[in-house]
Amino acid sequence: MGDANQSTTMDRSAPKLKRILGLAEEPSGGSTPLTLAGRISPPPMKKRRPSKLPATEGTPEVSLTGAEVQEANIVASSRQIFRSPFQLTRIKDLPNELNRDTVTLKDLLGDPLISECWEFNYLHDIDFLMAAFDEDVRHLVKVHLVHGFWKKDDPNKAKLEKQASQHKNVTLHPAHLPEMFGTHHTKMMILLRHDDTVQIIIHTANLIIRDWTNMTQAVWQSPLLPLLPKLPPPDPPSPQIGTGAKFKLDFLNYLRAYDSNRKYKSFGSIIETLTKHDFSSIRGALIGSVPGRHGPDIPTQWGWPALKGSLKSVPVTSQPDGESSIAIQISSIATLGPTDKWLRDTLFPALGGNKKGVDFKIVFPTTDEIRKSLDGYASGGSIHTKTQSAQQKKQLEYLRPMFCHWGNDSAEGKELGEGVAVKEVGRKRAAPHIKTYVRFGEREGERIDWALVTSANLSKQAWGEARGNSGEVRIASYELGVLVWPGLYAEDAVMKASFLQDTVADKGEGSGSVVSLRIPYNLPLQHYAKHEVPWVATADHNEPDWKGQIWQHR
């Protein structure tokens, strides 16, 4: 990956940072900090009562536990409002008012009741991970770290082993990757607790400091899952998509994939433990990818067939031609081919785009947006596409009409139109490592049909490639995400975009339920101008970023 020359550092003046963020010199304050010094005792295990929707002004900032995230609902007038199933991570260099309802790694791992942690990721900093646990128990928590550096001569494997040797309670589990160009890209944690509950956390961040500092990331937390009764009712043979039973079936099959065709079985104990827990409180469909060649007649589908199969159960808003849009927001675009065949014949139909009137948009930052981001060019080391070769240039040409800005405030981008109000989310200068796929029922209106947070970028390795007409799909990488839609919460529910907080700013109109969805980018989306190009980390960038640095690819 490239590296920026450190001509200047973060000692630039505060006023310059505020200008980059588009903030006033003295931002309005008075809000309660997200985290408090010292350890916070876990809340008592009891069901929360619905509370009245608080006013937007002066709302105290809190970090919700997994149990609260999905169980909590808020009653305003005659409407039932559910918090967003996805949360954003806290951004270090943004003010409190732009960090409302966000979470940190310590929020997720700092509970002293955690007894065991299975951590799955692509990049790992073990010291950073261990520091997130409660200081009184971090040396006692059994940590299992699942990574993709399985080859004996891989320097990343040696680095991990050296770090792990400093922690007696850390065990490494390499994931075998039989397919060329495959990676262990899943970002997930399984937490076992002393109160006999477990929690699953699926997110978009590598386990390194940079990803949890000034990069936009998303987190999905399951409720705390209790033990099943000693004689639980049998699961239905074909559980319905979106139910906890189906999520559990697919999740256990995902874990079993690590042990398939291997002499050394690492995952038997965690699978056995999870089998004993009740997943019925989960609302969402698991969308995973595992390496290999997969036929159509398997209990759990992977890659794009998993997404396509799940979306068949999701009703979508019927709109005139061109009124619905699907926003694909990713941090990496692989080589897809000189034509758009894979997109048009495979991925777009899986997303439900074979129906007339769906407008596809790809949200990806330009060089200028990386240059202006909080970390400047340094944040671009985690964001990838290529445009140098002849085939990559052809790919750029068919993607260009779909490209939209991340920050949506480019002076060179297409005009949004006279009188169009921009909905601000406070993340335009926090470069995106998040990956979201969202279907808007009204273009980029506030009504949403479904949303997916995942580790999967725009690539054949992640989503899979069909092998002829046999129905077989070839996948190279491990990926994991969660799909949600309003019908999971109530029969009459609608899903609406929420901005700057995890609940919609509802005015109490109507009687149906509302599911909030935290949006990471400003709306409406702004298309690239004809001359604009996406950020390319493998190119040199000699115009200094806002911190005075240039980018020289090595």
UniProtKB/TrEMBL annotation:
GO terms for biological process: DNA repair. This is Tyrosyl-DNA phosphodiesterase I. Substrate binds at K187, K435. Residues 1-59 are annotated as: Disordered. InterPro entries: Tdp1. The active site is at H185, H433. It is found in: Nucleus. Keywords: DNA damage, DNA repair, Exonuclease, Hydrolase, Nuclease, Nucleus. Transmembrane segments: none annotated. It comes from Immersiella caudata.
